[in-house]
């Protein structure tokens, strides 16, 4: 694996924990959700860390911010999908505390980085 600077970022490390937690929580979803909600949640979670990595590989602040905005949008997507999973009773509120913390912290960290990139152009 490459030893790249984004791997040292707290937001990147947190995004990897989010991926792990999403996989753990979706493991027991009903079989009929395997190619629907499970796939959507997992792909969105992977998108968060992937877009952080790709953003920090870009030289331009505008491009970097764009990828981080996509990452942040994936967090919103996950939040919506978790709400749906709660409504359908695939998840219980008591079991998603780690996910909620990871989502909130990643969103806040990405927002701060995006603001700093947009403010220093």
Commentary on this structure:
It is a single chain. The protein is an all-alpha fold and 121 residues long. It has one domain: 23S rRNA-intervening sequence (de novo design (two linked rop proteins), Up-down Bundle). Helix content is 72%, strand content 0%. It has helices at residues 10-26, 37-56, 61-87, 97-119. The radius of gyration is 15 Å and the shape is elongated.
Task: Tell me briefly what this model is.
The chain is mostly helical and 121 residues long. It has helices at 10-26, 37-56, 61-87, 97-119. The chain has one domain (11-119): 23S rRNA-intervening sequence (de novo design (two linked rop proteins)).
Helix and strand arrangement:
Blueprint: H1 10-26, H2 37-56, H3 61-87, H4 97-119
Helix pairs in contact: 1-2, 1-4, 2-3, 3-4
Mean pLDDT: 94
Number of domains: 1
- Taking all Cα atoms into account, the compactness measure Rg is 15 Å
Task: List the quaternary state of the chains.
Answer: single chain
Structural class: mainly alpha
Strand residues, percent:
under 5%
Distance between the termini: 31 Å
Order of helices and strands: HHHH
- Helix count from the secondary structure assignment: 4
Write the CATH fold name: de novo design (two linked rop proteins)
**Architecture, according to CATH?**
Up-down Bundle
**CATH level-1 class:** Mainly Alpha
CATH 4th-level superfamily: 23S rRNA-intervening sequence
Mind summarizing the main beta sheet?
none
Q: Which runs of at least 5 residues are low in confidence (pLDDT < 50)?
A: none
Describe the global form.
Answer: elongated
Proportion in helices:
over 70%
Instruction: Count the beta strands.
Output: 0
